[in-house]
Fold this sequence. Notes:
This protein has helices at 31-46, 69-72, 77-96, 112-118, 149-154, 156-165, 171-176, 189-201, 205-218, 223-236, 241-251; strands spanning 7-12, 15-20, 52-57, 62-64, 101-105, 108-110, 122-126, 130-132, 168-170, 182-184. It has 263 residues and is α/β, with parallel strands linked by helices. It folds into two domains: 7-201, 2-enoyl-CoA Hydratase, Chain A, domain 1 (Alpha-Beta Complex), CATH 3.90.226.10; 205-251, Lyase 2-enoyl-coa Hydratase, Chain  A, domain 2 (Orthogonal Bundle). Helix 9 (205-218) runs antiparallel to helix 10 (223-236). The structure holds acetoacetyl-coenzyme A.
Amino acid sequence: MMTYENIIFEKDGGIAVVKFNRPKALNAINTGVIADLNGVLDQVEKDSSIRVMILTGEGDKAFVAGADISYMVNLEPLKLREFSASLHELGFRMEALPIPIIACVNGFALGGGTEIALACDFIYASEDAKFGQPEINLGIIPGFGGTQRLPRRVGKGMAKELCMTGGLISAREAKEIGLVNKVFPADGLWEATQKTAQVIASKGRFSLRAIKHCIDSGYNLDLRQGCAMETDQFGLCKASPDAEEGMSAFLEKRKPEFKGELK
Ligand code: CAA
């Protein structure tokens, strides 16, 4: 297992745990964090024993308090643009990863923090987590999907209000608007996230990849095209031994044992 300067990467059975590890800067994202996360994705892509990934923050205060302002303050416009482009590449890589990623938001998730959580497959949060897009307070705009993934998740009006006011919302409010799936007391968040990760890790790897692909890629297609894609992926599931195992296990009244092979 490689070690990284800005993140902690551990494997716990079929679960990859990735922690942002710059607690003194509230885990703000700089180029080092981006490079390290790309390194982790390289490793995870090659390791078929990993079935699901959890993204969380080290320390008890922040998930990620945004892009690193001390890094951005001196950047020329084209360099700032490049920084945004590298964040977007990272987001697309996370969405293209064949396994699910759960954001386990244990504190501030602001700006790039909310945005990287949105690039995960879904978000669990602690009661004291805070979300928001405060870039407007810095005289800039969101640069990692806040004007794109956020409205797709919570609707245009809510996304505009968050981006235009720069105000923060609680985890409960984030749940109300559909940004967060579930909210837990701070001391129960990790266990709950792990439990869900274990459930997901026990499923067929091919089906998980197909679900992620169909929902992410199909979301922006019209219904007929999206359903055509689902039709193909549905048929393709039979290329994996997991489909035969799942159906046979049902008929034989036993629990399925998915091998997780991707054929
Ligand atoms: N970048 C760099 N450093 C940051 C940071 C950030 N985004 N957020 C916090 N820090 C640093 C602070 O500068 C401080 O460092 P020092 O101890 O060296 O002074 C340390 O983390 C602790 O922060 P605070 O003292 O501010 O802690 P607090 O409890 O008083 O406030 C907070 C917490 C409300 C999260 C506050 O730190 C804050 O508002 N942070 C900035 C949030 C923000 O604006 N995020 C958006 C960034 S822009 C972006 O993300 C662009 C994009 O879309 C890609």
